[in-house]
Design goal:
Layout (H helix, E strand, L loop, with lengths): L1 E8 L8 E3 L1 E5 L3 E2 L12 E5 H10 L13 E4 L10 E4 L2 E8 L5 H5 L3 H4 L8 E7 L1 E4 L3 E5 L5
Parallel strand pairs: 5-6
Antiparallel strand pairs: 1-2, 1-6, 1-11, 3-4, 3-10, 5-9, 7-8, 7-11, 8-9
Length: 149
């Protein structure tokens, strides 16, 4: 069992990350207020604390998790190679559609971060919303093996 330790949205492409304590998540629009919420494979992005800390250790930098520009920050769940599995966060259900590929923008934040996020899916995963609801920091997170994949 894991825990949701951060929520953030951006209102526009390249916009600043806005941390939240709670957020409504909808099948048709992702995280309320986030510009990327349209239905599709990259509706919500999720980053693990363990993966991000490993990347930061590799480049010897202390960075806020929002540097990665993900929507959700979780602790205690391994995300590598989880395509097709489900993340249950509070009453919200997300389908993992694949790895979030680190882009050159990460090096704009900190030199070497793009490369450090590549091993073991440290950059996190992309998801689509299967069941909406309201999530809050400290909600429980579980990874469910989706038998239909």
């Amino acid at each position: 069992m894991g825990k949701l330790i951060g929520i953030a949205i951006k209102k526009e492409k390249y916009g600043n990350m806005i941390p939240l304590e709670t957020c409504t998540v909808r099948v048709e629009s992702g995280l309320e207020g986030d510009y990327r919420g349209n239905p599709g494979k990259r509706q919500v992005t999720v980053l693990s604390r363990e993966g991000f800390e490993a990347a930061c250790l590799e480049i010897q930098a202390t960075l806020p998790w929002t540097t990665r520009r993900a929507n959700l920050f979780i602790d205690g769940i391994e995300l590598a190679h989880t395509t097709g599995q489900l993340l249950n966060i509070g009453n919200v259900l997300l389908e993992i559609t694949g790895e979030t590929q680190p882009c050159h923008r990460m090096d704009e934040q900190c030199e070497g971060l793009t490369k450090a996020l590549v091993p073991d899916w440290r950059g996190g995963v992309c998801c689509r919303v299967l069941r909406g609801g309201t999530i809050s920091v400290s909600d429980e997170v579980s990874l469910i093996n989706n038998q239909t994949t």
